[in-house]
């Protein structure tokens, strides 16, 4: 899809879920070689138009996520790409064993999309938050995990996975008015991180909505004389090892994610660095091991210490204590 | 194939299953393998076209062993009808084998789906049947599901969706031997005897048969389907069917055969073959 400045602005307003549905609907105009399965969430994932225009290619599975993933497996048996979507806890946990069998064990060509990942489900509470999804999907062998940084990257990711062989999990963080990281078109390739900002002192590796917050943090840190690199690690598995290798000369590595500090991006980076003879100190910023008290999205980000300012302050403290 | 010929094939499959179990030297799911053998003999011998290697994906019928622990029946059927070589059966449950205690998806070996985690095969079958509808593929889909397996809620999710999508290219056969891992289903989750009503109430074209009566199995599977309706066949079976000391005896859910037991079991089958009792 053509990516232009004015489109990116519009997409940001529409938000993550609407843009996901929009890009699939656009792709359906050009090609008829994929199916979309939804767990009674057409309206919530921007797929109402798709359902109306291409009823043969969108299947509403009802509120039955386990069966949805199993059916997706059957429909992917001839190699067809099958998207299967619901809110992130329901596709990654309710249907976890179906995911493990169909996407992991059988390596069927299913692209599972976790809507409302992270904390964006705000007032709906922890039943709807996706704060363990990366950990779960990452530990099942053979599943690629992608976490787009903004709405433009959602477009890029969905387009990319359509022709990417094998099972993929895409987690959609952020909501309407999702901040933009990319103002223009750029090079996106699954498994290859994007360095958004060079910096010689510390390196911030982030994914999803936290890329924007990390860029903000980097600006604040610069005011205090700390020069930070910012990496968009949009593919959490397989992790871009070359990119991490290029960062080991920094004084500090910080990972930031809208996900539990257990098992997500921070863990993936730490697992890789653990065996390296030379590695900087790493701090893992994310949702601590708890269920946050529900509230607005901003309230939740603040509660979990995930705003740009809080990220900057936390980094500053670590840098100061090291000096 | 005549009913008589199919009965003989089923008898051979029982011999094969016991040989595999015995030669593996370890415990195997014998009871649940034997309960579905007569159904498998009819499916592979007469109903499905899977032995024809020339067929494309779109043409070749799909079989899913949702009760993955029924592999002794499945592997025996694949060998009996020439989908796999008889030699490979000796690798059953040996280190590194492709033939383990639950099917592992393998196109070359005719294993359509990996199973072992119960309650998932019907979903895979529904997906395959829906794919065929959407892409005009000619194959039909058959799933064998256990009665104990029906404890899993996902079975019912899948069954409801088969009805919703009007999958008349889809058949689920319940191998209802009335038992499960811990014993008689009536003492654990008592739904045996209710399956006809349950499947029928959900809108499937539901039939009930004696799962060891080859004539009946054949007749039901050959009967034309109702347009727009998936089919459920409740097959009343006996766990361990065919071997006197195994029938209805849950000790044979998962057990190891001693040489003496193996020879006794084989002797029963050979005697039946010699006297023509297998018909």
Order of strands, main sheet of chain A, comes to 2-1-3-4-6-5-10
Task: Tell me what the CATH architecture of the largest domain in chain A is.
Answer: 3-Layer(aba) Sandwich
Going by CATH, what is the homologous superfamily of the largest domain in chain A?
Answer: Thiamin diphosphate (ThDP)-binding fold, Pyr/PP domains
Instruction: Let me know the largest β-sheet of chain B.
Output: 5 strands, parallel
Helix/sheet category of chain B: alpha/beta
The low-confidence runs of chain A, each spanning 5 or more residues with pLDDT under 50, are none
CATH topology of the largest domain in chain A: Rossmann fold
Q: Using the coordinates above, name the CATH class of chain B.
A: Alpha Beta
Give a count of the beta strands of chain A, DSSP E runs of length 2 or more: 12
Q: Name the CATH superfamily classification of chain B.
A: Thiamin diphosphate (ThDP)-binding fold, Pyr/PP domains
Question: How many domains in all of chain B?
Answer: 1
Written account of the structure:
- Chain A has 323 residues and is α/β, with parallel strands linked by helices.
- Chain A has helices at 5-14, 16-30, 48-53, 65-75, 88-94, 96-105, 133-138, 151-162, 210-223, 241-245, 265-274, 297-303, 308-322; strands spanning 34-38, 58-60, 81-87, 110-117, 144-146, 168-173, 194-197, 202-206, 228-232, 235-237, 252-260, 281-287.
- In chain A, strands 2-1-3-4-6-5-10 form a 7-stranded mixed beta sheet, sandwiched between helices. Chain A has a 5-stranded mixed beta sheet with strand order 7-9-8-11-12, sandwiched between helices.
- In chain A, helix 3 links the parallel strand 1 and strand 2 (58-60).
- In chain A, helix 2 (16-30) packs parallel to helix 8 (151-162), helix 4 packs parallel to helix 6 and helix 9 crosses helix 13 (308-322).
- The mean pLDDT of chain A is 97.
- A 5-stranded parallel beta sheet of chain B has the order 1-2-3-7-6, with helices on both faces.
- In chain B, a hairpin with a 2-residue loop joins strand 4 (179-180) and strand 5 (183-184).
- In chain B, helix 5 (121-135) runs parallel beside helix 6.
- Classes of the chains: A alpha/beta (323), B alpha/beta (279).
- Chain A binds chain B through residues 35, 56-57, 59, 61-62, 64, 66-67, 69-78, 80, 97-98, 100-102, 105-106, and chain B through 57-58, 62, 104-105, 112-115, 117, 119-120, 122-131, 134-135, 137, 153-154, 157-158, 160-161, 164-165.
